[in-house]
Design brief:
Belongs to the ROK (NagC/XylR) family. By secondary structure, this protein is of the alpha/beta class. 32% of the residues lie in helices and 18% in strands. It folds into two domains: 161 residues, ATPase, nucleotide binding domain (Nucleotidyltransferase, domain 5, 2-Layer Sandwich); 162 residues, ATPase, nucleotide binding domain (Nucleotidyltransferase, domain 5). The structure holds zinc ion.
């Protein structure tokens, strides 16, 4: 997939950054848009363990209509699907729906894009669930493209965010887990099942702790938010008066100079750096974009991450690798799903 950015000014529509919520035009038809042909929009679905977000998105990455439902994650598979269908029905109620030419889905994983199925770890009712087929039926037969959430975030960052203009990039989502995706040779590289770039389960500690994935010493086992907090607590750190015992609380303590809190972030940063350096040596990415809640720690994470990269990324062709924060924010999933949908259309009117 290759999504070319389009100048916002070309539509004469000054919604500004597509990543900002101010880009939203709540009631359909944005004034001043030229008479675009049908199919110039896509429907995007961002499906996670807590919410199902939907949007109609244009070729410039602007979100024109939104819909959202909580994910009934503990319910059976058909109940979860009914929530997805509700989101689609709400989008279809917009007059802009007639302009939608495809549906893109970014889903919590694992996904199997080749089979059109999903098995999100935190949605037990969906195991090998035929999501693509069901969304195609609910969406009136529009073509459907499925990617994992890490790949979706990567597509969003390449299209509208910090990886824009970079032909070779690794994007990481560091939050409850650690996911990621790759852009290689200017194109998103989802791999056959849509999971390529899943850096969280590269082992960086051969004799490390067992990981729920079945491996050992995975990046995620060290660098995810819950593991940052777990290690800090295990070494004697205690939350402050606000009682925040999550990675956010550890970050606040690290910022205030707490040595144990700092050490936990340092170790997470080293694990991420080792994984990023390995990826760069394998496929020559030039930039690593880091998003997700843990990236919100800012310099508490990025300073040791950049320092550690100098330790692990030493060869001439990886030495200049840069690490930057992601910039598409909470809309990354929707924008990435939209980018995936645009990328599959044989003759997209808005892109390429
Ligand atoms: Zn693992």
């Amino acid at each position: 997939m290759h999504v070319e950015p389009r100048h916002h000014a070309s539509t004469g529509h000054s919604a500004g950054s597509p990543s900002a919520s101010s880009a939203e035009s709540p009631n359909g038809s944005p004034a001043g848009l030229p008479a675009d042909p049908p199919g110039d929009l896509v429907a995007a679905l961002d499906i996670g363990g807590t919410k199902i977000a939907g949007a109609l998105v244009d070729g410039g990455g602007r979100i024109l209509v939104r819909a959202r439902r909580p994910t009934p994650a503990r319910e059976d598979g058909e109940t979860v699907m009914a929530a997805v269908a509700d989101v689609l029905a709400e989008l279809a109620g917009s007059p802009l729906w007639a302009r939608a030419g495809a549906v893109g889905i970014g889903s919590a994983g694992p996904v199997d894009a080749s089979a059109g199925t999903v098995s999100p770890v935190n949605v037990p009712g969906w195991r090998g669930y035929p999501l693509v087929e069901r969304v195609r039926a609910a969406g009136g037969g529009l073509p459907v493209e499925l990617v994992g959430d890490g790949v979706a975030m990567t597509a969003a960052e390449h299209w509208q965010g910090a990886a824009r203009g970079h032909d070779d990039a690794l994007c990481l989502v560091v939050s409850t887990g650690v996911g990621g995706g790759l852009v290689l040779g200017g194109r998103l590289h989802p791999g056959p099942t849509g999971n390529a770039g899943h850096i969280g389960h590269i082992s960086v500690d051969l004799d490390g702790d067992p990981c729920p994935c079945g491996g050992r010493g995975c990046v995620e086992r060290i660098a995810s938010g819950p593991n940052i907090a777990r290690r800090a607590l295990g070494l004697g750190w205690r939350p402050g008066p606000d009682g925040d015992a999550t990675a956010t609380g550890v970050a606040a303590a690290a910022r205030a100079g707490d040595p144990v809190a700092r050490a936990s972030y340092e170790r997470a940063a080293r694990a991420l750096a080792a994984g990023i350096a390995a990826t760069a040596a394998l496929v020559e990415v030039r930039i690593a974009v880091v998003g997700g809640g843990v990236a919100g720690a800012g310099d508490v994470l990025f300073a040791p991450l950049r320092r550690s990269l100098r330790e692990y990324a030493t060869l001439s062709f990886v030495r200049d690798l840069v690490v930057v924060p992601a910039s598409t924010g909470t809309d990354a999933g929707l924008l990435g799903a939209a980018a995936a949908a645009f990328g599959t259309r044989p003759r997209g009117t808005a892109l390429r």
